[in-house]
Prior knowledge:
- The protein is an alpha+beta fold.
- The protein has one domain: Multidrug-efflux Transporter Regulator, Chain: A, Domain 2 (Orthogonal Bundle).
- It has helices spanning 8-15, 19-28, 46-65, and strands spanning 5-7, 34-36, 41-45.
- The protein has a 3-stranded antiparallel beta sheet.
- Strand 2 and strand 3 (41-45) form a beta hairpin.
- The protein is elongated.
Amino acid sequence: MAGRFLTLADVEEMLSISTRQAYALVRSGELPAIQVGGRGVWRVEASELEAYIERQYAKTRERIASGDV
């Protein structure tokens, strides 16, 4: 993660998810992103991606602790 902002392609690669899944995360608001430029290209701030990953770890820990795995 060299820069402040990542493309959705970067997010897809880092999370090993499809393009469709990346767009779904952004559209749902689960992964905050902004649109920039005249073409409205999506960008995700690196810190937001890290926060999303931490939230997913926390949810997983909660599920494991409740025995709902």
